[in-house]
UniProtKB/TrEMBL annotation:
GO molecular function, one term: ATP hydrolysis activity
Name of this chain's protein: Ribose ABC transporter ATP-binding protein
Subcellular location: Cell membrane
Gene name per UniProt: rbsA
InterPro entries listed in its UniProt record: AAA+_ATPase, ABC_carbohydrate_import_ATPase, ABC_transporter-like_ATP-bd, ABC_transporter-like_CS, P-loop_NTPase
Membrane topology: Peripheral membrane protein
Organism (species): Spiroplasma helicoides
C-alpha cells in the first residue's frame, strides 16, 4: 500500500497529461454540464462517480470526441489548449472509450473486429500476417488466451471486454475510458480485469473508471472525481472519504440504510410452486414462493438462474415438471401469456429485451396492460396518459414529459420505466433479474423500496442477482444454484460465506 501511495504522489507531481477545465455542455435549453473539472494522470486510475444523469457519460463523450463542449478548455501536459472535433481526433491523441454495451460486430471474428477501420498500406492492402502477430502478442501480454478467429458473438461478455482493451492497446491508447466494466462480470472475471488494469497502470496508461459499485473504488482507483447534476463536486484521493461520505456527495443527501428493514414474518400461503423441472440444462428444480416473501436466486455465472425463469415464461424449453400458480397447474406459452396470468419476468437486459428505446415513456409503461386500457380493442389515450402520469410520479421518474423517448433517459430512470411497466400489469408474481445493474446508489435505494412495497402488498417477489449484498440485504430466503440445479435453499443465517459455499 505504501509503494502505491509513493507511485501516486510521483505521478501527481508530474502533473496531469490532460486537464479538463470548466467544461459546459448544453443540449438546447438543458444544461448537461455546468462547469466540470477533471485531471488525468498517467499510470493512474481515476474513478468518475455520480448518479445516473449526473453528466458522467456526457463528459466522457466530450473527451472521446463524440460531443463538442459548449464552453471550457482541454489542456495537454504542456498546458496548450486542444480540442477533439471528432472520434478520430481523440483516438489519434490516444483517447479510447470502452462502452458498457460492447459496440462490436457480432458476426465478425475477433481479429476483424480489432483491426476494422485501421489504415491500409499505400497499395491499399492489409497484412493479415502482421495483424495476427500483433494481436497474438498483445493478448499474450495481457495473459489472455482468446481464439482470434472466433466470432465475437460466441465470446463471453468478459472476453468481449478484453478484446476491446486489446484493441485500445493496439491503437496505442494512453487514456482508456471504461464505462461500468464489471456490470456483467462474475467475481472471477472482475479479478482478471483488475489484474489487466494494474498492468496498464505500470505501462503508464491512464484509466477513467466509471462504476456504481462503490466497493470496487478503493480496490482499483487512485483518485475520485464526483459529479452531481452536471456540476463538479470535487476531486479526492482514495481513502480520503468514507463510502457514506461518497454517497452523500454523489446524491446530495444522506442515505442511512441501503435496504429496507427486513421482515422475518412470511405468509404460509404458497402462491407459486415449481416441481421437478428437468430439461437439457436444468436438473430437478423444485421450490415454493410464499405470498409476501422475497425469494433470492444466487449462483455463479453459468449456474442457469436466468435460463430457469426464461424456461418458465416460455422463452426456453422447460422440459418436464409442473408449475402451479395459486394451486392451479399452469403452462406459459410465451412471456405475454405469462403476463396475462399474473406472472411477470423483469429482464436483466432492459435495452434489448425490456424496453422499446425509440418509443415514449407512456407507450412503454402501457405495453404490458393494453387490455386494461382498451375499450372494444381500442386504447383510450386519456387512460393511457393518466396511467403514465401516475407511474412517473409513483416511481419518481425524472423526465420533462411522459412523451420523452426512453433512449434519452439515464440508466436509473430507464430501469424505473421497466419496473413501472411490470407493476402496471398488476402481477401476482414478480421476478426481477439483476434489478439494479448499471443503476446508481440513489436510484438503487428507490428500487429496493419499490420491491419491498410489492412484497408488502402481497405480491410474490423473486430477485435474481449477482450482487451478494443485494441478495442478502433484500431476501427472506435464498436459493443457491449450481450447474442447473438448486444446491441449497438458505432460510436462516443468510451470509456471503454460506452463499459462496453452496455456489462453488
Amino acid at each position: 500500500m505504501k509503494n502505491k501511495e509513493v507511485l501516486i504522489n510521483k505521478n501527481l507531481q508530474c502533473g496531469p497529461i490532460l486537464k479538463l477545465e470548466n467544461i459546459k455542455k448544453n443540449f438546447g435549453k438543458v444544461k448537461a454540464l455546468k462547469g466540470v473539472n477533471l485531471n488525468i494522470f498517467k499510470g493512474k486510475v481515476m474513478g468518475i462517480l455520480g448518479e445516473n444523469g449526473a453528466g458522467k457519460s456526457t463528459l466522457m463523450n466530450i473527451l472521446s470526441g463524440v460531443y463538442q463542449m459548449s464552453s471550457g478548455h482541454i489542456y495537454n501536459s504542456k498546458n496548450e489548449s486542444i480540442t477533439f472535433n471528432n472520434i478520430k481526433e481523440a483516438e489519434k491523441y490516444g483517447v479510447c472509450i470502452i462502452h458498457q454495451e460492447i459496440l462490436s460486430f457480432p458476426d465478425m471474428t475477433v481479429i476483424d473486429n480489432v483491426f476494422i477501420g485501421h489504415e491500409k498500406s499505400k497499395l491499399g492492402f492489409v497484412s493479415y500476417k502482421k495483424q495476427k502477430k500483433l494481436l497474438l502478442q498483445t493478448l499474450e501480454e495481457m495473459s489472455l488466451n482468446i481464439p482470434i478467429n472466433k466470432l465475437m458473438k460466441d465470446l463471453t461478455i468478459a472476453e468481449q471486454q478484453m478484446v476491446e482493451i486489446a484493441k485500445a492497446l493496439i491503437k496505442k491508447s494512453k487514456i482508456i475510458i471504461m464505462d461500468e466494466p464489471t456490470s456483467s462480470l462474475s467475481q472471477k472475471e472482475t479479478k482478471v480485469l483488475f489484474k489487466i488494469i494494474e498492468k496498464l497502470k505500470k505501462e503508464d496508461c491512464a484509466i477513467l473508471y466509471i462504476s456504481h459499485r462503490l466497493e470496487e473504488i478503493p480496490i482499483i482507483c487512485d483518485l475520485i472525481t464526483i459529479i452531481r447534476d452536471g456540476e463538479f463536486i470535487g476531486e479526492y484521493k482514495v481513502g480520503e472519504l468514507s463510502e457514506n461520505d461518497l454517497i452523500a456527495k454523489m446524491v446530495g443527501r444522506e442515505i442511512e440504510d441501503k435496504f429496507p428493514k427486513k421482515t422475518t414474518c412470511i405468509n404460509e400461503k404458497v402462491i407459486f410452486s415449481v416441481k421437478n423441472i428437468t430439461s437439457s440444462f436444468l436438473k430437478n428444480i423444485s421450490f415454493n414462493l410464499y405470498e409476501g416473501e422475497i425469494l433470492g436466486f444466487a449462483g455463479l455465472v453459468g449456474s442457469k438462474r436466468t435460463e430457469l425463469f426464461k424456461s418458465l415464461i416460455g422463452l426456453l424449453d422447460k422440459g418436464s415438471g409442473e408449475v402451479l400458480l395459486n394451486d392451479k397447474k399452469i403452462s406459459f406459452k410465451s412471456p405475454s401469456d405469462a403476463i396475462k396470468q399474473g406472472f411477470y419476468y423483469v429482464t436483466e437486459d432492459r435495452k434489448s429485451e425490456g424496453l422499446i428505446l425509440d418509443e415514449s415513456i407512456k407507450t412503454n409503461i402501457s405495453l404490458s396492460s393494453l387490455k386494461n386500457l382498451s375499450v372494444f380493442g381500442f386504447v383510450k389515450p386519456s387512460q393511457e396518459t393518466q396511467k403514465a402520469k401516475d407511474f412517473i410520479k409513483y416511481f419518481s421518474i425524472k423526465t420533462p414529459s411522459y412523451n420523452q423517448k426512453v433512449s434519452a433517459m439515464s440508466g436509473g430512470n430507464q430501469q424505473k420505466v421497466l419496473l413501472a411497466k411490470a407493476f402496471c400489469s398488476k402481477p401476482k408474481v414478480l421476478i426481477f433479474d439483476e434489478p439494479t445493474r448499471g443503476v446508481d446508489v440513489g436510484s438503487r435505494k428507490e428500487i429496493y423500496d419499490l420491491i419491498y412495497e410489492a412484497k408488502n402488498n402481497g405480491i410474490g417477489v423473486i430477485v435474481i442477482s449477482s450482487d451478494l449484498a443485494e441478495v442478502i440485504g433484500l431476501c427472506n430466503r435464498v436459493a443457491v444454484m449450481k450447474d442447473g440445479r438448486i444446491a441449497k435453499i438458505i432460510s436462516e443465517d443468510i451470509t456471503q460465506e454460506n452463499v459462496i459455499k453452496y455456489a462453488l
